[in-house]
Amino acid sequence: MGCKCGKGSKVEPVVHPTPIHVGNTQKNYLGRRYDEDAFIDIDVTNQELKRDILDENVTVSALLETKSRNIDLNLQDPNAFNSKFCQQRQSAIDNQTYRKIVDSWPPSSLKHLSDLMREFSANKSSVDKAWIIFYWIGRNIEYDTVSYFSKNYANQSAEDVFKSRKGVCAGYGNLYKKLADEIGLKCENTSGYSKGYGFELGEAALADTDHAWNFVEIENRWPDEMIYHHLPENEQWQLLAHPISKQDFLSLPKTYPTYFELKLEMIVPKFSPTVSLLKGKPYTIIILKTPLDVDIIANLQLHKVAVKGGERIVYDKKKGYYKCYFAPQSSGLHKIHIYAKRKGTEGTYPSAIAFDFDVKGPLNSSISYPKTWEPYFNLNLEVLHPRNSFFLYLKDNVVSAEILIRAPAGVALIGSLKDSDNQKVTGGDQVYFNNRKSLWRCQFAPPKNGKFVITIFAKKETETGTYPCALEFELIATHLKSPISYPKTWQCFHDYQMEVVAPQNSRFGVWPPGASYCEILIRAPDDIQLTSKIAKDEKTIENGDLIQYDAEKELFHCLFAPRSAGTHTLTIFAKRTSDIDTTSSSAVQFGLNVTELKRSIRFPVIYTRFETDRCRIFEPLNGVIKRGSNVHFHWQIPNASEVKLMSDSEWKTVDSYENNILKHQLKLTNEKEVTVYGKYKDGNKFTGLAKYNVE
């Protein structure tokens, strides 16, 4: 054991950690005494929340009641794009045999290609014929970007496009019509205006026709969903019941095929390619209706860069529509993109619709929105604080940020803090449920100045598996001088209203130079019983932990004695004293980095009565005492009617036991063990409290 004392000398004293002065008003590791009213006043927050919701509802109602221009987009033939046609079209697209055969063709001339196509498409439907032509052109004709940008267009006849394998829109249209005519597919060419590459709204928009394309008759119908982005010069080919004007065309938002395939419907704005800030608000709102099996996401961009915290999407179950909020952080021409796909389908969200959002002049104020995922809505989570903020700033040496969330019963949350390198900050998060306020407190403490990502995960307690993402924020620390960290805590730590008195503001226990053990101070209510363990490399160290109660200061001294240098884990467990048949639950956990250990010790073997009666050992703390030495026993043993020592099998009457304090001097000879016993009013027998080994 490394002892240097000779025979008959006293036991060499254990090296104790530096004493920590603790008063009854000692602050806990959060920098305040445990007080559930110490954080944000939830009553105030609820009032703010109610005002926000009322304000948003009034704003949305006003938007819905605002009269906007009406543009009649009813088709001449409402059944042109019926479900049968859509199924036939998709079937042709998915037909891999068609693709393989068309890819195998080596046409030497346009006539040869026409012959191949005519033979292959014989007896096939007009949908299949239209797809076969489209597929061959798409695979074999390259867009002539040089001609497009130089405006020096080569001959765009079908023959020349086939030979050069290049063309612009007119060339594509001419080749398509030539092949359609050859295989008996009715097709027409048209020219007009488009909202294609490089299109920008403005006074010069659509000054001249700039595009050419085809119309194909399918089973005596002319299907068309292009009026949002293609306006034929000849009104006949608008294929609308009532042709629209060029100004009407410019008033339509930019749409993509997904918008029509998934049957989306714009509500606000009904007919406009642009949106603007709402009067007196730092945001705008787009309202969109979708079928029940469709999900949408969105983003806000400035100069093709996503605006962090720029969008918030809320599904209104009662109304059956999505409310899409967009909040810019600065002035400038922004782009709004909304994407959609069917629920349960894999892959990315295709583009559905887009808007221009021109923010003019400096913003008087700005807001931002946390990033949300599906569990946030499905689990009915609600951010109480901060409201309308993606960015959380730590200034003036504030060391942590707090997010308050309300969730239904049976929903559990966990959190994570990551640095700019996407590395998790250990000890950077603490998330728990506050029973009194019925909300989740999510606390995050960065280790240094910089930008960090806060992620909150959520799932039902009854569900197995990992926690999916629910919310994300960005934490920015600029004036952090004394960072803190959180020990790992479990829900019972907070349910039992436990406090960490020392170490303050750290996930690590303190290892003083030359010490034999470290000390964690915990305050807990009278009906809470604590136990503990110390482990290294996930192996528990026997007799390496001891929990004692300081009745004067009303706190627990949790002692941990490592056997060697290195990284250790210190875990404290808790239970209510009334829960006799219940095992203790993990409550709080610290790390301990032992840099140097000159003298290791083992604590005495502790029995149950020692823990339940909250006994305390002043000396000897070392559970291994030296044979032949004089040992002074100084203990606090509450409520015993009598105390004795047993040296091996021989009872020893103690020198003194008064006012719950045991004092006894024992001269050791050849004993192997010494046990401290107490007798209590609830029994006639002595009960073991702790045992020392003699070596």
Automatic annotation (TrEMBL):
Gene Ontology annotations for the cellular component aspect, listed alphabetically: cytoplasm
Domain Transglutaminase-like positions: 119-222
Pfam families on file: Ig-like_KY, Transglut_core
Positions of the KY-like immunoglobulin-like domain: 247-362, 367-483
Lineage top rank: taxon: Eukaryota
InterPro entries assigned to the protein according to its UniProt record, in alphabetical order: CAP/Cytokinesis_protein, Ig-like_KY, Papain-like_cys_pep_sf, Transglutaminase-like
Name assigned to this protein: Transglutaminase-like domain-containing protein
